[in-house]
Input
Amino acid sequence: MSGLLSLQDVAVHYGQGPVLQSVDLTVRAGEIITIVGPNGSGKSSLLRVMTGAVRPEQGRVLRQAGLRIGYVPQKLRLDPTFPMTLRRFLDLPQPAGDHAVALVAERTGISGHMHKQIASLSGGLLQRGMLARAILRRPDVLLLDEPTQGLDQAGSAGFYELIEDLRNELNCAVVMVSHDLHVVMSASDRVICLNGHICCQGAPDVVSTAPEYRALFGRGTRGTMALYRHDHDHHHGHDHEHHAEPSPK
Output
């Protein structure tokens, strides 16, 4: 196995139908991979396969021995009435030392908020809190599921800059699901276009010109890209027969 984490011919089914089919993907140290695709294309499921939370019906998931994974979910599923400070949240699932917590809190910009209740945090602070928890144990692979959902453009840009800095400091791989296509094209080493299977993948400039990508996202793929919003589901029904995987030249 070359790489930190490798998926080989992975398939996932929920209920009657397949969510993912024939997925081959290798994550290498230090690279930023962004996964794009329409709603229902299997992006979150793919991340959960990587974490081990979902077992594939078919195929294999290979992880480097001792691999540490940090995961920032799309939503935090906590009872809003349950009292929990941000500092206590960072101790889940096991207590973290004060020194380590202070370092990641400073790095993610949450130091002055440790006493606040999780339920009272703004979207941006909560995202940074989840990121702090994910990097506490210095992961080899950092997985982020739409980490800037609900943040404004300035908040999103700041978050992506922080991710890039953390990648350099920790030398970890980053795999993130994103709808921010204009950011993806500048921040990623590799873009994977997913629609139940990998439609195409490669360097951002290769993927942005691929017909499989344009079938899903239209032709606004050069220069400053428009945000792909959740209400753009009318692209979901486009041709599913694209299997070409253009490689970076």
The first helix runs from residue 43 to 51. The longest strand covers residues 17-27. The two ends are 23 Å apart (CA to CA).
